[in-house]
Here is the input.
Amino acid sequence: MKKQTNKIPGYIKILGWLISLFAFAIGFWHTHLGLKEFRPLSWEYGSLIVAAIVLMVLIVSYERAVSGIKIAIVFWIICSTILFIFNLNSFYPSYLGRKLVKEEAIALSDSLELYKNKIDKIVGLTGTEYLQKLQFLDNKKENLLREIKSRGGFGPHATKELQEFNQLAGSNISPDRKLGKTEESRNEMVSFFKEKLEKAIKTYVIKSIGSKENEAQKLFDSSQELNENYAVYKLGLENAIKDNTAINIDSVKYHPQIVLMTDVVNELDKTSRMFNTVRGKDEFYLFNKDGENSQPRSQFIGTFEHTINSLIKRIDKKDTWGVIILCLFIDFLVPLAMFFLIREKIENSNSRTVYTSNASWWDKLMGRDDNNFNN
Here is the structure.
């Protein structure tokens, strides 16, 4: 039975292996970078050791797979998958770190504007409501005293005014059915009821409006603090949005723009908690619940958890797929292409393909396999 060997020049095999090894080296280094946060072996350079182990297993598995050992393909795929996962944790924040900061800065800027407008509206309405009630009571008092003086006592209109006053103030002032026939008696009656009405207003302020006035003051003070910092926060966020410089992943938490974003989140949460507590309802969303520190998310750029969560959230973005495809290319496509291109095979006359596997690795690399020796 005649055999036909599909000869591959030795230099092509060498070049193919160099390409694969170069891809493996890139994968190794970025696996080290992607593993750094875990501090494997509780050592600063533990990630290098782990990445080196994966690399060595990968090279051995790849060589055995090229030599025709099928089970080696399984270990090759496992090692390549490990490289792929941790390469993502290196490439993704490195290439998209600045864009992620920009996106969060835009979201925070919008939230800052929204919160400020809503808070100003609430504070304005609270103050207006307080003043309106005081004005209403004062108007009722003046109308009532005017009626008493002009009619010399309580007529139907004065009685109605007193009822409305009592209803709002929560007082229980009774109308005087006596008539003031002289100017002096009318003035005495006006003075008497004026004192009673003003006392009722004061009592109402202390019992009813007093607490709300205190709450209104708290809301006002809280909103003032936010307003004082608003211009600084807004300008800082706008600068972060316009900035195109790279983000240093190793010190991302201490980047001035990330620090500013953290201050914005803390300020918004502080104000939101005050408003939610005073008003007795959750009107404002809290970025960080009590004891949490999950926002802004940009402070965690470079961590494995952030990378995975961000990838899932931005899976519909083209730049996300660009990073995924790049990692797939380095860790899978390049070695796989070389696997098929440098793997030598023998074609029998019955069209059955047999891969060479008995010759040594160096003989195969140089194009001297066992079939050549047998021929």
